[in-house]
Amino acid sequence: MIRHTVVFTLKHAQGSEAERKFLEDALVLTRIPTVEKFERLKQVSPKNDYAFGFSMEFADQAAYDAYNTHPIHVDFVRDRWQTEVSKFMEIDYILL
Amino acid sequence: MIRHTVVFTLKHAQGSEAERKFLEDALVLTRIPTVEKFERLKQVSPKNDYAFGFSMEFADQAAYDAYNTHPIHVDFVRDRWQTEVSKFMEIDYILL
């Protein structure tokens, strides 16, 4: 299992319709067959300044690769992520 | 539910006995009654330079507060975390 997470901040104003729409439209990623346990998260620690997170799990590296190259993901990154996200960091985990 | 995560890097050499011992001894945190779903994680994304992570869940803020002030946590932070961790970031999530 590989858990892929990304913590991020949007360019949109907090509580805006554009923010709501981005978070809603991100659910399109769950249509990618290898995506498991997709979660949309609100980042609540005052010790960093990110606002949101996504978390998902893949069975193995092949499933992760299939996500990365899937047209739904490629389109979402190009059309939404690159234009609406101001700052992000990817963190991927495997269980020790 | 609040998911508390911390991504971190140790001062110890990769694969060293000191590294193994730190990760083993961190299991003491699972003795704190409000800690749920404690996970020790290896950070595997090449897009950041952290090496490990811990993840745990709390039922609510009171459970999180009880963890923060619990002597087992306070001692672990003072005796191990502050001396053996070189870099870390805390990220906390709630489900959207």
Largest sheet data of chain A = 4 strands, antiparallel
Question: Largest beta sheet of chain A: what is the strand line-up?
Answer: 2-3-1-4
- Tell me the total number of β-strands of chain A: 4
Q: Which structural class do you get from the secondary structure elements of chain A?
A: alpha+beta
Helix-strand string of chain A = EHEEHHE
Q: Biggest interface and its residues per chain?
A: A-B, 26 and 26 residues
Separation of the first and last Cα atoms of chain A: 11 Å
Q: What general form of chain A does the structure show? A: globular
Mean pLDDT of chain A: 98
The level of helicity of chain A is 25-40%
- Rounded to an integer, what's the Rg of chain A over CA atoms? 13 Å
In the predicted model, the low-confidence regions of chain A spanning at least 5 consecutive residues are none
Oligomer: homodimer
- Into which percentage range does the β-strand content of chain A fall? 35-45%
Compute the number of helices of chain A: 3
